[in-house]
Amino acid sequence: MTRHETTTSTPPGDAGTRRGPLRRVADWLLIAGFIAALALPLGATFLRLDADGGAFENRRKMDFPRLKMTPRGLAHFLGPARYWFKENFGLRGLMVSSHGWIKLHVLGVSASERVAIGQEGWYFYSINGAIDSYRALTPLTNEEVRSWAEVLDARQNWLAKQNCRYLVFFAPNKSTIYPEHLPNWANRIGTESRLDQLQAHLNSRSGMKLLDVRETLSKHKPDAELYHRTDTHWNQLGAFYATQRVGQQLHEWFPAVTPVQLEDYRIGTDDRFSGDLMGMLGLYNVEFESAPRFIPLQGKWVTMADADKGRLVVENTDPAAANLPTAVVLCDSFGMRTVPFLNHYFRRVSYLWTDQFYPPLIEKEKPDVVIQEMVERRLIGYTPWNPAGME
Predict the structure, then answer these.
(1) Shortest CA distance to 375 belongs to which of 196, 137, 172?
(2) Chain segment 6-23, per-residue pLDDT in tens
(3) How far, in Å, CA of 381 to CA of 131, rounded?
(4) pTM of the model
């Protein structure tokens, strides 16, 4: 190299300068993507896009709160507005469903403490004694058994003074009918469930007796599934067989009552059923199962009367129904699934969703029979009682 020759080299920043336009485009795209990621849920919130998704919630969501332009009105607006935004957050349903799906299908765990993943595609409600009832972990004490018997006896005696029959049955927990599908950890510990205890005590003495539908359901269990895999409740076939057993007892008291038969219905299939347990996992209308669907044949029509304070009143318009009894049915969500079948036993029946005994409705309707249904897990964590004046 001579002294006239000079060396040149590319400054470190030159290559970056030559790539500068591409880098700036990439930077702007990154910024735009970041802003879009922030703005999309906010925009979806006010456009009400996918506010629910797979998150099944058995309640009505609150409306957007009204703002009054006063200091007090503003203070009262902020709390409800914050809650409204939380439950209506845009794409919330998609996020909840994705979370539940990943936990279930990738990690193999439940996204909710309320749902236990069973075997062969079965799911179980896992709190409020739904599984503990089958495991018989905490039996009823002698005092608790006597308390249940005394309360039921008092109800029967009160109704007898009004020439009214009293029929009580417990809807079995899914774990009672399908223990073979429970998770492996849900083994049986005790020898008797609480329902076993109460049934045995009532059968050992005179007075009130329970109608036990467990034997009927177990008998028909090999024929088809009687409970939903993705739901807490029995399906329509399970509700049918339980109601058929109720009809057999009613027939002994009221000969005009004929227990429902499968031939009275056309049985189809609902391939898009998604149950409440899927809602608890955030997968409502994401995970599905097939479920039986009963359609009454011609000649089994009933007329729905106006609902009054949570009641459902059904009047049978079939001329042959004139000889049928009247009824009041006090029930929970299991009992409400028997409504399409129970309707055919009565010329008039009033349903009330409650776990209590309700004399005002009974005194108003003056029925021939009161039917009370309670889910089996009600025997855990609940102390029965009667209203004043029923001694």
Answers:
(1) 172
(2) 455 555 555 444 557 888
(3) 14
(4) 0.82
